[in-house]
Amino acid sequence: xxxxxxxxxPLRRALRGLAFLAVALWSLFPIVFVIHASFRxxxxxxxxxxxxxxxxxxxxxxxxxxxxxxFFGSLANSLIVTLGATALTVAASALAGWVYxxxxxxxxxxxxxxxxxxxxxxxxxxxxxxxPAVNAAGLSDTHLVLVLLYAAFFVSLGTWIMKAFVDxxxxxxxxxxxxxxxxxxxxxxxxxxPLAIPGMIAAAVFVFVFAWNEFLFAFVFTTTRARxxxxxxxxxxxxxxxxxxxxxxxxxxxQLVPVLLFVALLQRHLVAGLTAGGVKx
Length: 281
Prior knowledge:
There is one protein chain. Helix 1 packs across helix 13. Helices cover about 80% and strands about 0% of the residues. It is built from 14 helices and no strands. The chain has helices spanning about 1-40, 40-45, 60-65, 70-100, 105-120, 125-135, 145-165, 170-180, 185-195, 195-215, 215-220, 230-235, 245-265, 265-275.
């Protein structure tokens, strides 16, 4: 049996490598195509037969700035909303994660299942009933309404990520801090938070990517002042004069690059957040 297993091992490794390569190509091809197309003359993007060897050009970015100058203002709106939603979600998730990890009770158990249940609802189901309430509160077309909605939508996932990290922190650390006279605030600040930073970063990555690319909430609750970049790109795709694909791909590339850099820089912490609590001992 052992020789057969040894003979099968190289074949299994080869199959796994091919499967990984197929998934990587499937995931990377759209990203590479968008970035590559943004530096091509518009006439060659969808040429038949395909033209691979063309001289790169930045004309698409020049046309984007000339035809859609509001896109760059919408990027600033996206950045404000994304940073605000990320900070609020991480702060709330860190505190909630500690409570769920260290406290027990029927109410907490019920609220945990309620968070998961609400997270399963499609966003459109929550959006429509909220529209009149947002208007009545005077929050329509503001950055604040998007920050609150994005944070509320992702605080459940962030809480479970943080709970998994806090579960790995020995209770003896907290007990030692209490013996030394530390208050609850000091204990959270100097003991729990430093040890749970990878989990906070993992939660931040999820919220950042979601908030930066979210379309539905921004479409329903904003009109002019707080429009985000995805809304402008959708207008470019729905232009009555036809779609100018060069500026569209240039805008998509500009919006894509910050997310790619952010995820790439924090990839190690993201993997740690996904695997936290999976192995004990």
